[in-house]
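Course exercise 7: structure representation. Students receive a sequence record and must write out the corresponding structure in token form. The form below is the worked example handed out in class, using Diguanylate cyclase/phosphodiesterase (520 residues). Read each field label carefully; the graders check that inputs and outputs are placed in the correct fields and that the protein name is recorded exactly as given.

STUDENT ID: A-19
EXERCISE PROTEIN: Diguanylate cyclase/phosphodiesterase
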Amino acid sequence: MLVFSLRAVNKICIKDNNTGWRVLRGLIFFFVLGYLGVFYYLSKQSNLAVSDIIFCIIMFCGGGFVVLVTRLSLLSLVKVEKLVINERSNALHDSLTGLPNRKYLMDSLSQHVNAGLPFSLLLIDLNRFKQVNDALGHYYGDLLLIEVGKNISEHLPDDSQLFRLGGDEFAVIVTQVELEPLQHTINTIHLALESAFCIENYDLLVGASIGLSHFPILANEIGLLLQQADIAMYSSKKLATLYTIYDLTLENNAAEKMNISASLKRAIEQQEFELWYQPIINLRNNRLYGVEALIRWPRPDGSYTPPSVFIHIAEQTTLINQITDWVMQQVAKDVEHFESLGLSLCIHLNLSAKDLQDPNLVNKSISLVKGNHSSQKIMFEITESAMMTNVEQAKGAMAQITAAGGTFSIDDFGTGFSSLELLRDLPVTQIKIDGSFINSIHHSDADLAIVKSVIFLSKHLKCNVVAEGVERSATATLLASLGCDLAQGYYYSKPIPISSFANYIQEQQSVSAVANQNSF
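STUDENT ANSWER:
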């Protein structure tokens, strides 16, 4: 038994270099020699006394005790060792998909960078995954992530390793920097996501936006490598490309956006914006019907930051809600000015997709509508894509605002989903045809047919129609002949500050007087 326990102690000494285990091994070896000596002594005795037998039994039990202690110690060490291995594995692997996680990625990147061998980093963001989570819940989203991770792993070549960073973001390290093998890897990723994933009777489709950076060609340290791949990935998502390789222009754009975002926050706090108004004309009598409120952000040099630039950045944060708040407050003030000019207008203001998700939108909109006791009316313009972000939420908010006296217009109709279901179910009283269709109706039969169809559809849905982007007299005349109700564009007027509106009214009255005189 003592000799058998030596095997266990030897294994313990290999796993644990503690001096106590080596001392124990020496003692056991000494006891083995002692036991052999006692055995030799007893074998020479012709008769054994009772005390000798008792002594042998005690020594036998001592041997059993040593075996038990050493075996249990070895089993405990093995168990602890397995727990440590499991803990290390859990710390380096994603609990949901079983893939290597962000920490594992950082360790792997460190090893690759220290080795100094060229490699590429791919960052992957899933497209349409948020819609799955919103529509079906996180349970189905998690099952989808498991299948996505499994499918991509099975398709990746041997020189690539897949990691899950969290949410719907993944990363791949490829030991290649040449474009051809990288394109092969990228194609296999898209191929793995090409077919629908069957998740408990739901067929779910996702895509991928991929950003690439190279070591050491583009970046020679981990933080910069991750930043570049992240910038390229967001560019791929924005441009809807299969992949984007990082270059300096992307970083310049990202830096510019960060600067605009920081300046935008300051502009909101200091109320640096201006609200300009573009006239909307009634085509039946060529009189002023209403105005569209358009935000302007002046620069110190006297120029203006284009709304198409800063509104897009604001919509990526909650800043857009604060901008909408300012617009509503400013419209409420400007109503008094229009009233002083003796005007009875319909004032249009735009709402974004983020505004429709704002739980305070209904109260703020109702406050604007009910607070307006003058002859001015309020029309909220929403794009088709904004309403499609969450149809049920949009429907509920619009119903409450409509009940309070507000009205709604679908902006840029024809450029989004163009869903007839929206026109049927939502409380819309107006449709605005996008200027991209209006500008070419004289020489494009297709655009002319679209405009005619929208006007026909709107009439039967009891909605009036606004044509945006009218720039020529012939366009206005054609639209009027087609039955279009309203029009706005540079032919009538560019957006103007409210302080210039009195001059605009005087000019229109002068033009109208001259026209009447000529007619007489």
